[in-house]
Amino acid sequence: MEQKTYNAMLLLEGGSLRTLFTAGVLDVFMEQGIDFTDVMGVSAGSLTGVSFVTKQIGRTREINIDHILDKKYLGWRNLFLRHQIFNFDYMLGEMSTTVVPLDYEAFLTSPTRFTAVATELETGETRYFEKSACTDIFAAIRASSSMPMVSKAVPLNGKRYLDGGCSNAIPYQKAIDDGFEKIVLILTRQKGYRKLFTAPAMAKAYAQYFRHFPAFLQKLLDIPTRYDREQREIDALEQAGRVFVIRPEEPVTVSHTERDQAKLTALYDKGRAEGEKRLEALRAYLER
Prior knowledge:
This protein is an alpha/beta fold.
């Protein structure tokens, strides 16, 4: 199908393996020839966005379903040996060069402006790394996807970074501030979902682990309040027709480290179904 590129921001929320929903939506977009001038990914949303930029239909699905039982990719052994439950050395190395090859040339030469969102460990501030201006965009993508406590902080340009969702899970305001009239959000939680609180045991673990990084720790502890505010603002923007939102219709039960291939496949299929269902409305929004 003929491709049409819209002058719009495609913003991809993270959520670890919940982004298989996103992968389903994006595969439909690629099959239908829908493209965007700008793509911004947070956490696993940045990894998912890479295969969208390269137009490799099914690549994210193959990695996170067909290879999810590969212990070199995901497993507690990785945490003990490498301090990262998802083995990014393997994922961005052998997996991306040999097992499920990434079209590096297509990614790096694509005119699409791709941005990975990460959180600076020392300051707790959100940082945006656009591929054409970043010294190592794949380090930025790795940083964006590195979950606190189960991943190593990623060094880049003399600073250290972790998961972008720690400070800004859905940076729609960044897209608005940058002047985008059209903003498409793909979220990985159902409408009305709220992070009500951080469990006391988790808050205690955060406080111990990040005791030397008080600004970052505060961002972690503020996640429930911030996420609630973001969701309420997104609901208002969607109601006003300012943004277009695609998200699961039902609660997602897939965990961050889910290894049930049937559950993962079902989530991907739900993403495809939702993407297909919303196509007509999406085109109307983008062409309005």
